[in-house]
Amino acid sequence: MSKISLASQISAVEAAAQGKQATMTRGQRELHETHLAAAVKTLRWVAEHEETIRGNAMNRQAWRMIEAQS
User: Fold this and answer.
1) Mean pLDDT, to the nearest integer, of 32-56?
2) Is the pTM above the cut of 0.85?
């Protein structure tokens, strides 16, 4: 599977949430399904790495506070 941008993944999720699949052609639906599958894969990766992601965000926030005090 080729890389699918986050913007395309977000658009696919938004379209699904708004029920827009019914108005799509077969080709559009196939592409939409590919983008939704990529979004699921991305979310699973984020869930798997959530602790590390949160830890890195907290470390950055702490460093900004330290730098601000300097």
Assistant:
1) 94
2) no
